[in-house]
Amino acid sequence: EQQRRSGERIAALTHDVDELQYGVSAIVTVVRNPIMLVGLVVAAVVAAPTLAAWVLVALPFVLIPIRWGGERLRRRGRDARQTRAALTGLMQEQQAGLRTIQAFDAHEAEMVRFGGVAAADREARIKADLQRIQAPAVVEVAGAAAMGFLAWYGGTTLATGQILPEDMVVFLGALALMRKPLAELSEVWSLMQRSLAALERVEETLAEPPAIDEPPSGQELPPGPLAIRWEDVVVDYGDGPVLRGVTLEVPAGAMLALVGATGGGKSTLLRLIPRFRDVTSGRVTVGGVDVRAASLGSLRRAVAVVQQEGFLFARTIAENVRLGRPDATDAEVRAALERAGAAPFVDALPSGADTVLNELGQRLSGGQVQRLCLARALLMDAPVLLLDEATNQVDAQTERAILDALHAVRGGRTVVLIAHNLTAVRHADTIAVLDGGQVVELGSHDALVGANGRYAALWRAWLEQEGAAP
Hints:
With 470 residues, the chain is an alpha/beta fold. The protein has 15 helices and 10 strands. It has a 6-stranded mixed sheet. Strands 2-1-4-5 form a 4-stranded antiparallel sheet, with no helix packed on it. Helix 1 runs parallel beside helix 2, helix 1 runs antiparallel to helix 3 and helix 2 runs antiparallel to helix 3. It is elongated and about 120 Å long.
C-alpha cells in the first residue's frame, strides 16, 4: 500500500503536471478566437441584420454542446488520472516486490492483477479521448446545420429583394468563417477541462499535510555526545497504544540495547528520535531539546540511522556511503567501509568503491547491503547512532568485527541498538526489555541474567539455540 501510494504521487507530479501544458497552450487560442468571432458577428450584423438575428438564436445550440462536452471530459479526465495513478503505483509495487513474487510463484496472479488495472486504464483513456473529439464534432454538425438553414432562408429573402446579393455574400462568408473559431473554442474548452482534471490531482498531492511539521523557529542541538530521554511516551497508531508510558534515558556516549518479542514497540521507540513519527503524548529529548522543538535539519544531522531493510541507490558505492557527507574524502570513505566490515567485498568488485550498483543494490547480498548502510552511518560521524537489527544479515565473524567497531566509537556517540541476536547486546551499558509497549526489565546484561527474569529466559533460549555455553 505504501508503494502504491508513492506511485500515485509520482503519477500526479509527472504525468499530471505534463497535462497542464495543454491548458497553457490553449490560453493563446482563448484570447485570439473570441476577437475573431466578434469581428465576424459585427460583419454579419452590418451586412444582414435580419439574418444575423437568426445567428444569435442558433448560437446557444452550438455553445451548449461545448459546455456539456467539457464537463463530461473533465470527469473522464479525472477518471483517467486515477486509473493511470493506480497503474503507476502497481508497477512500482510489483517491481519493488519482484523477488517476493518470484519466491511465492505468484507471477501469474500478479499478471492478472496488472492486466485488470491496465485494462481499466486503457478504457478510461479511450473514453476520455472519445469525449475530447465528441464536442468539436457536435459543434461542426450544429454549425453546418445552422449554416444550411441560414443559406436557405437567406436565399428566400434574396429572391424577395429583402437583401442585396453583395450583402448576402458578405453574410455567408462571415458565417462560414465562424465555424473554424467555434470549433477551436470547443477544442480549447476540452483542453482546459483536461488540464483542470490534472490540476485537481496535482493540488490534492501538494496539499497533503506533511506527517512531521517543521517547527517555526527550530532549535539547534548542542554539539558533542548527546543524551537521549523518553519521558512517559505513548504512541497510538489508531488501533491501540504501541508504546504505553515508556520512560528511558541513555546518557551521552552510552549504549542502550532494546530487546524483546516482535511487536513490543522497539522500532517505534527508535523512530521517535529522528522524528520519523511523533509521540501521541509524552516527549522525547535529544541533548535536552524536545525533538518537536528542534530544527529537523539539525536533528537529522545529529542522528545516523541504520534500518533493518537497508536501501541503496543506483549510484556508485562511494556515492551511497557519502549520502550524509557529500564532502567526505576517499580516505574517510575507505575508513568507514573498513569499520563496517565492507572493505573486503568492495575491493573484490570490478571498480571497487566506484562500482555502480543496480537499483536497490540488487547486485549485493542482504548482509553486504547492511554493511554499506552501516558504513554510510559511521561516515556521518553523528553524535547519535541508531541501529535497527543492523547486524541480522551478517555472519558471526563480521558481526563481531562490526560490534568491536561500534564499541571503539561509542565514547563519542550515543548508541541505541535493537537486536534479536543477544550476543550483540550483552556489552551494552543498559539493556531494556520491552513487552506489550512497556519496559518490563532494565539493567546491564549481568544484572538481568542474575535477576532470573524475562531477559534471563531470553538469554538461556538464545544459548540453547546457538548451542553455546554461557
